[in-house]
Amino acid sequence: MKSNRAMAVMAGGVLMAALTANPTYAQSTATPRNWHLLNYAQDSVYGTGVEKAYAELLKGKKSSPILVAVIDSGIDTLHEDLKSILWVNPKEIPGNGIDDDKNGYIDDIHGWNFLGGKDGRSVKEDSDEATREYYRYKSLYGNPDSALDKQSKEYSYWQRLQGKVSKPSGESKVTYKTMLKLQESLRKCEALITGYLHQNDFNAAKLDSIQTADADVMVAKKFLLRIFQNTGEENLNYSELKSEFDEYLAELKKKADMADSEAPVDKRADIVGDNVNDINDKYYGNNDVMGQFGFHGTHVSGIIAAARNNGVGIDGINDNVRIMMVKAVPDGDERDKDVALAIRYAVDNGARVVNMSFGKGFSPHKDWVDAAVKYAEEKGVLLVHAAGNDGNDNDVVDNFPNPDFADHSPRANNYITVGASANGKTGKVASFSNYGKKNVDLFAPGVQIYSTVPGGNKYGNASGTSMAAPVVAGVAALVLSYHPDLTAQQLKYILMKSATPLPDSTKDVNKPGAGDVKVPFADLSISGGLVNAYDALKLADSIEANKDHKSKKKKKVKMESVKKG
């Protein structure tokens, strides 16, 4: 559920729609880059009230440092806005090649890389879980359609795999051919516009300003404006849109080729070298949490913790936080084993909050992940998970990991699942966001979130529930900073109870994945609300004050009893 990929897939759908749609382009009012930190009353955007909280509630108050683990793709450890907030393992001596803290992971200074090999390499790409399971079943049974009992759970599972892998790969062939034609049209339009503007990049506003007698340029302008309009994302540059489309096209080609291919080569086995089917084989990987593939993890980390008020870049949500990077998410589906061990590593090394901006539709070793979630629950660690970017109802469609245990024990109460909301000007709920009245807890800003990106102190926008989850993780860490004695369960209660309904008069929204179908926003999640840092802090203050009052009352009663005695 990598957000840049989600954007790419979304862009693909948008581009397909642009072939037939012909909307009128209207430039939207500019939205501040830090809109997710602002609030509706003062700024007319569906933000979290973080800046208002700093200004009105937190001035002069002391905070405690909070460790947040980010299970993701890696982080740019040299970024100007992230260097100062990286967790440093106090029990390790950097670079001595010795496991000083004896936790099984050598020189884990800023975290650990479960995608790494002993030779320093890391897994960049992996297959999706449905594909891995599809070919595993074929290798086990040859022809599962004839080998499996038609009434068995295994056969039902096999049918689901076929529906996810075999049929879509055939459909992808047709779509891929269509997209190649569209790519050619884009290139022609791009050449005409860049030639006319004498610049290599442009946005919708720049396109809209073009007035010329050159008919070819005007056709290109109208075609590209249709595409920009369908993205629903203001301030998007063509270079970003093109990059997303190219990524979507590459992914589409993989799926198209799958129709005629054998089982994908397991690159992970060659690089990592562990037994992926043995959860007890856990001391693998390397300490390279940066690597070359850290766009996603860098962006997520900046949302939570980019250094505040340092005069550069952006401000994160929490000004007293450290980020531990646990690298376990490749370009493709993460492995259950890596996820389970990543959660345990984070918990064992002191994380109070764990951000998990990833997900998939199949989980063959769910029991391993469930055991790790239970371990985090026992240790009082809050897990924050992205709901997914497929416009699905999570009450109907599986999304893993999740707080429901395979052994049917009570649901985890230290687990929050987050959907993505928009700024309220260009939309209210992200069209790509998953939702669920039973399985999504709340919504948070997840469209056009500006944050840190790797490659030389850079910044950029990304969208997805992958961005919404760290907004909630950041707010959770902020509340903990000023109320460090809260349990994970109390923290979840505060975030849920303080989640607010849509701040304007219109409560209906476009149902994600359903076009113009309207539904009440309250029906899309358990809380029916948006995360609200300001209200969460006020509620935490109130709970603490009430607790102090009760404590003083008990002491008074006790003292009076002693005097009487």
What does this structure look like?
The structure is a single chain. The protein is α/β, with parallel strands linked by helices and 565 residues long. Helices cover 42% and strands 9% of the residues. The strands form 3 sheets. It has a 7-stranded parallel beta sheet with strand order 2-3-1-4-5-6-7, sandwiched between helices. Strands 8-9 form a two-stranded antiparallel sheet. A two-stranded antiparallel sheet has the order 10-11. The chain is globular and about 95 Å long. The N terminus is likely disordered.
List the topology elements.
Blueprint: H1 3-20, H2 40-43, H3 50-56, E1 66-72, E2 111-113, H4 129-141, H5 144-147, H6 153-197, H7 204-208, H8 215-231, H9 238-258, H10 267-272, H11 295-305, E3 321-327, H12 336-348, E4 353-356, H13 366-378, E5 382-386, E6 415-421, E7 442-445, E8 449-453, E9 458-462, H14 465-482, H15 488-497, E10 508-510, E11 518-520, H16 533-564
Extract low-pLDDT stretches. Answer: 1-29
* H-E string: HHHEEHHHHHHHHEHEHEEEEEHHEEH
Largest sheet: 7 strands, parallel
Q: Using only CA atoms, what is the Rg?
A: 25 Å
In total, the number of strands is 11
First-residue to last-residue Cα separation: 65 Å
Number of helices: 16
Strand ordering within the main sheet: 2-3-1-4-5-6-7
User: Structural class of the secondary structure composition?
Assistant: alpha/beta
Which of globular, elongated, flat, extended, rod-shaped describes the shape? globular
What share of the residues does DSSP label as strand, in percent?
5-15%
Could you name the key traits of this structure?
disordered N terminus, single chain, two-stranded antiparallel sheet, 565 residues, alpha/beta
